Amino acid sequence: MKNFQQKEVESSATPQVANAPLVTKYMTKKLITFKPETAIMDVVDTLLKNKITGAPVLDDQKNVVGLIDDKDCLKVLFGGAYHNQPVENNDVAHYMSNVMRTVSVHADIYEAAFIFLNSVYKRLLVVDDGGKLVGQISRRDILRAIHDFDTEAKWKK
Questions:
Q1: How many domains does the structure of the chain reveal?
Q2: Looking at residue 140, which CATH number applies to its domain?
Q3: Most CB contacts within 10 A, which of 23, 73, 100, 132?
Q4: Cβ(134)–Cβ(127) below 8 Å
Q5: Which contacts qualify for 142-146: CB closer than 8 Å, 24 or more apart?
Q6: What pLDDT is attached to residue 2?
Q7: What pLDDT score was predicted for residue 75?
């Protein structure tokens, strides 16, 4: 059972390309993750320190329950000021989004690129057949794939 609202793209709408590399070839496997009870200021510090814009939120059983990103963290500024609350008292669960897009480990990079082209998402969580998080693919990862295609094409000439 999934604890988040997963959105999927209709497979008939995704271009089918023979022998296309899978997202697992380009995805990031070693992810920084947070728990729902992590203090939001710890998230801000971690995002800045690691030069990343977001990360998955996992429960104690390692199930994906949300995603926290830099845009979510911007709410800290207004939430604390408007409600006159100390920021330290707020945790990730208060700010994270529980609506995110995932792709299967069996998806290819064309499917991921299609999702990116037709949505506002900058990252997709990659899940196995059991729905467990195994990585993340970003728009930048797709750019690496494009670069590899170009390099391979030049080598063939």
A1: 1
A2: 3.10.580.10
A3: 23
A4: yes
A5: 142/26, 142/109, 142/112, 142/113, 142/116, 144/26, 145/21, 145/25, 145/26, 145/109
A6: 47
A7: 87
